[in-house]
Amino acid sequence: MAIKTSDLNAKLFGKANKRRATTPAEAQEAVKEQAQFIDLAVAGEEMVSFELVRVPADKVVSDTVVFEENAREQSFLNEHALSDVLTSLREHGQQYPAIGRKNDQGKIEVLDGSRRRMACILAEREFMIYVAEKIDTKHAKFMSDVANSHKPLSLYEKGKEMQAKLDSGEAEDQKSLAKIFQCSEALVSGALKAAALPLELLQAYPNVSDLGRPTIVKLHKQYFSLTEEQQNTLLKQCGEGEKFVWQRSEAQGVARLTKEVTETLEAWITELLPSKKSASANKIELVKGRASYQRKGSNVSLNMKKVDDATMQEILDFIKSKLD
After folding, report:
1. Nearest 5 degrees, angle CA 138-CA 144-CA 145?
2. In the sheet where 37-41 sits, what is the strand order?
3. Of the given ranges (22-31, 182-191, 240-249, 283-292), which has the lowest mean pLDDT?
4. What's the CA gap between 27 and 38, in Å, rounded?
5. What is the C-alpha separation between 74 and 118, in angstroms, rounded?
6. For residue 181, is pLDDT > 50?
7. What SS3 state is found at 244?
8. In the beta sheet, which residues pair with residue 304?
9. 33 pLDDT exceeds 90?
10. Residues paired with residue 299 on neighbouring β-strands, in sequence order
């Protein structure tokens, strides 16, 4: 019986289950059905062939890496941040394969699916991913950015992207960033403040994506009210015992954990800052309700109220004559 060349190739190379996808809907259907081979139009341009690879649970960490230009901060991916996928994955396994490429070191580089990858690691389940041999960095970045649009980035991650555009000159100020990212200037300001905070401080929380702008703005103000030495002390407290702050809490649920972490950080910062009460105790009143001064070492600060221009000039001239 005659056999077609295409059928022969399929038998020889195991490519009978192959799908060609030219639209997002076709691609989603092919991925859903877990076809062994699919052809995708990357970034709407040339067709690229992807093969479905099943990475054993004990090989996911060693055989796969996340695309280094992926905007998602991988250290934030814990059981709380991945709760939306972990339960289903533990019960039924991975439903939708990720997408990646082979890098120069021969490892599988994840472009779309870094959350699924980490969920498989935490759940100790097999990781499925479509892998292509030839995808350049430009197209890899495109696929990674598109993938991240499905699950919103945290303010910190958005801020990192915004800061990168400022540093590269692609954006001049917060107003231009708001246009590029199609958001308010207030959100841009909050995101940049988040990006300015150290990772160790944000890792104190169970799910950084849950932190809204008010919390970030307050945390930014509190953190940068500390001296560099005090900041280092705070970060050291955050990393004590090789556990994040949220991991040391016995509170249940992300909301309660987040509240407790915020209260803990605020308590630590209050302890590090000088007491306002002790500062006011050093104030010496010269004229009740009109003039007082404070001395710290060889430095003196003078505070006066209800002083007219002529009197102020006389006082300034006197001080100048004494210090010249």
Report:
1. 90
2. 18-21, 37-41, 47-55, 127-132, 98-102, 108-112, 64-66
3. 22-31
4. 8
5. 8
6. yes
7. coil
8. 291
9. no
10. 296
DSSP string, 55-113: E-GGGHHHHEEE-TT-SS-GGG-STTTTHHHHHHHHHH--SS-EEEEE-TTSPEEEEE-
Residue 18: predicted pLDDT:
53
Q: How many CB atoms within 10 Å of residue 207?
A: 20
129-138, 279-288, 294-303: least confident range = 279-288
- Distances 143 to 95, 98, 157 between C-alpha atoms, Å: 19, 11, 17
CA quadruple 254, 255, 260, 265: dihedral sign? positive
Cβ atoms of 8 and 14 within 8 Å: the answer is no
pLDDT in tens, 269-294: 999 987 655 445 567 888 877 888 88
Helix axes 213-223, 185-196, angle to 10 degrees: 40
Q: How far apart are CA 10 and CA 34, in angstroms?
A: 17
